[in-house]
Amino acid sequence: MTPEQLDASDPLARFRDRFALPEGVIYLDGNSLGARPKAAEERLLETVRSEWGEGLITSWNKADWVGMPQRIGDKIARLIGARPGEVVACDSTSVNVFKALAAAISLRPGRNVILSEAGNFPTDVYIMQGIEALTGRQVRAQLVQPDEIEGAIDGSVAALLLTQVHYKTGRMRDMARITSLAQESGALVIWDLSHSAGAIPVDLTGANADFAAGCGYKYLNGGPGAPGFLYVAQRHQNAVTPALTGWFGHAAPFAFEDRYEPAPGIARFLVGTPPVLGLSALEVGVELFLEADIAAVRAKSIALSQLFIERMAPLCARWDFQLASPAEPGERGSQISYRHPEGYAIMQALIARGVIGDFRAPDILRFGFTPLYTTHAEVAAAVDHIDAVMAASEWDRPEYKVRSAVT
Amino acid sequence: MTPEQLDASDPLARFRDRFALPEGVIYLDGNSLGARPKAAEERLLETVRSEWGEGLITSWNKADWVGMPQRIGDKIARLIGARPGEVVACDSTSVNVFKALAAAISLRPGRNVILSEAGNFPTDVYIMQGIEALTGRQVRAQLVQPDEIEGAIDGSVAALLLTQVHYKTGRMRDMARITSLAQESGALVIWDLSHSAGAIPVDLTGANADFAAGCGYKYLNGGPGAPGFLYVAQRHQNAVTPALTGWFGHAAPFAFEDRYEPAPGIARFLVGTPPVLGLSALEVGVELFLEADIAAVRAKSIALSQLFIERMAPLCARWDFQLASPAEPGERGSQISYRHPEGYAIMQALIARGVIGDFRAPDILRFGFTPLYTTHAEVAAAVDHIDAVMAASEWDRPEYKVRSAVT
After folding, report:
1. DSSP states of A111-123
2. How far apart are the C-alpha atoms of A183 and B38, rounded to whole Å?
3. Could you give the CA distance from residue A340 to residue A342 in angstroms, rounded to a whole number?
4. Which of A109, A119, B40, B401 could be a cystine partner for B284, CB 3.0 to 4.6 Å?
5. Which residues in B lie closer than 8 A to residue A228 (C-beta atoms)?
6. Which residues are paired to A189 by β-bridges?
7. Residues A270, A248 contacting (CB under 8 angstroms)
8. Does B107 contact A at CB distance below 8 Å?
9. B32: phi > 0 → left, psi -120 to 50 → alpha, else beta; which?
10. Stretch A354-378: mean pLDDT, rounded?
11. CB-based contact (8 Å) between B354 and chain A?
12. Does residue A407 belong to any structural domain of this protein?
């Protein structure tokens, strides 16, 4: 079938119109910042005009601002195979990773290693190293090569922190198998779902997961810098005294008592006052996903990425691109990456043509496939653009070699 | 002069129209949630429609999302007497208090006490207690009575955490004197400016302050759950390895290295991806303040609160209200509180009349005065409403005695 025919029979095609996408742009960077759901504008206006402007302080109750972290958390839970009361939407992903790591360490007092892989998303690794410093090196942050993880799990490991879908390559870890393996050694596992939630079917309950954290502004389309989320399995919640003991995690925040008393359940992992504007936009993105069948999302994600790989094959031979993602669809998330020594400049030339992916040092071009709004025709056209950029050496300009603050 | 005459000669009167306030409401709760600047709507629409919707990922550079925490921090710095490069806008107030406390402790390794007063704003105290638990009680969180603070500062104190303006009573601490006293004992001081920034003139540089944190959604009018801010004196910045070591505090966040390397200066205190929507609204609130003369703000704040106290005096005798704030304007911030055993129900009856203050357990009615939008006429009318509520026992209804989730 042609890309156009595939689009015509796409069961998710109706979602495309729910997003505001600029004319003339092929957006393949929803893995970094999701596109804007059209409804986000109206919802934010409602929050700003009516809830903030008219309701003022009374909106904490009347508009249930106070319940947003749990309400949106419960909606995210449905996307990641968690149960109601196991997820809160709050803080940044980084802060949530900190909470999960600190919680895991507190549950494994005799063990002094937190383990991850070299090349994991930097913030995860940095948070580990920060905890090492914070504990006066009583806890050690250990990085091993990706294929050495399983062998490194031993009785000293308190917590294993892994990203399910790797941010550069899209490689997907077997969550159930690794969780089980770690738990057999007595370790706890923290899954970073930043490139999973909304991208692939996730089953935290099925995997008997301990902790997870993730991002609201990527596949969940929650808006720039959207709040992240934190999952804590029900069995661990009341056993943990959180490391970040802010008033919104208190058993009675409005009793204004002098003594910290953690709220029962997932609420104890809240810290400060909820970021209402960010949560408002995030809720729209999450709700949109709840209308879609995640199995259909996954099927289309694979179709889009297979089409991309197939069309890119001749370009790899012609222009020296190297596939950096697993060729097997079952082993990756919803992005495809290629290595090229001129990757940065090539991406700038593509962006100038309206094909927006991104670049990750040192040489990775990333293309994200977001089934709610990416079409097969766009994927095919993107490859034509890449071919054209290479054929005319459009990337070979000085201005495309100056790195921006954010790549 | 009558309240109307005072309003007619008010040099800040022109700011009233810059805020969207509902008809028929006298809003005396800007100390809890600031009113909405009209410009916030347009600014958020711009961020959502154009920057997110059209610019998508490129807005990190093109709209300088990446620079927002420092840019807005520098604007807040002008309101609190800090220098450029000493403030960042990010995370919640609670998370920023955690960062400041952890930093202070790391700078005073031989000392094991963090000190505050009983009845301080709960999240400050809870964060202290969380750090006590996190360090395995190597650091002790000590609370003393408000008037015992100065006597409790000794060589064991690593950090003193005080709120400059008390959330219940409005009592204002002498920042310069206490900072100096603590520093003479070798302690560091963390000032919580949640009820100061935008309410009173603050001079962190003049006080030789060490650390401060504060709130964006109260007097700064940054919107519900707005990001907070963190101040770290320049002299301390590079001496601290932050406790929360997220990627946005890295020296080269987009180099994606495996080793944490703190950014030079205030940027190292950033953690996760900046909350762009919340920061957008916050910037509008802060910018509005930069147009006003803070001395004029203070003068009007005192005029409003003195008018309130004067008009309330006969009601205190008549209805058993007790002034809970210092009578001397120089000793308080921009709010006036009264105690009354039926405080909760009375506040509900006032809110039903459109006079919005708030209640703090066990018996405090709080009224905040926000000189950019509160008029003298409103203050006088509010007192008339209170008198009417008491005269007709309007508060004495069962539904006014059922506490909401948020008070």
Report:
1. --EEEEETTS-HH
2. 54
3. 5
4. B40
5. 272
6. A160
7. yes
8. no
9. alpha
10. 96
11. no
12. no
Please list the alpha-helical segments (H only) found in B57-161: 59-62, 68-79, 93-107, 122-134, 149-152
First to last CA, chain B: 35
Q: Which DSSP helix (H) or strand (E) runs through A380? A: helix A376-391
Q: Pick from A56, A127, A224: which is nearest to B65 by CB? A: A224
Residue A136 has a pLDDT of: 87
Across the interface, which of A44, A245, A255 has its CB nearest the CB of B44?
A: A44
> What percentage of chain B reaches a pLDDT higher than 70?
100
CA distance B390 to chain A (A): 22
Residues B205, B306 share a domain: no
Q: Name the amino acid, one letter, at B192.
A: D
User: Among residues B124, B192, B210, B358, which one is catalytic?
Assistant: B192
Number of Cβ within 10 Å of residue A385's Cβ equals 16
Exactly one of A344, A366, A369, A373 is catalytic; which is it? A366
Tell me whether B205 touches chain A (CB under 8 Å). no
Which pLDDT tens digit goes with each residue over A68-126? 999 999 999 999 999 999 999 999 999 999 999 999 999 999 999 999 999 999 999 99
Confidence of residue A7 (pLDDT cuts 50, 70, 90): very high
Separation in Å, CA of A99 to nearest CA in chain B: 10
Same domain? For B251 and B308 the reply is no
Where does a domain end: B240, B269, B290? B290
Please report, as a single letter, which amino acid is at residue B90.
Answer: C
Q: Does residue A36 register a pLDDT over 90?
A: yes
How far is residue B316 CA from its own chain's centroid?
Answer: 28
Q: What is the DSSP string of B221-278?
A: ---TT--EEEEE-HHHHTT---SS--GGGBSSGGG--SS--BPSGGGGG--SS--HHH
Tokens 């508009």, residue?
A63
Last residue of a domain, one of A270, A290, A310: A290
pLDDT in tens, B56-105: 999 999 999 999 999 999 999 999 999 999 999 999 999 999 999 999 99
Dihedral in degrees, nearest 10, Cα atoms B26, B30, B34, B37:
50
What sign does the CA torsion over A74, A75, A78, A80 have?
negative
* Helix B38-45 × helix B276-290 angle, to 10°: 140
A348 contacts chain B (CB < 8 A): no
Mean pLDDT over each residue of chain B, to the nearest integer = 97
For the entire predicted model, the pTM comes to 0.97
Q: What is the CATH number of the domain that holds A339?
A: 3.90.1150.10
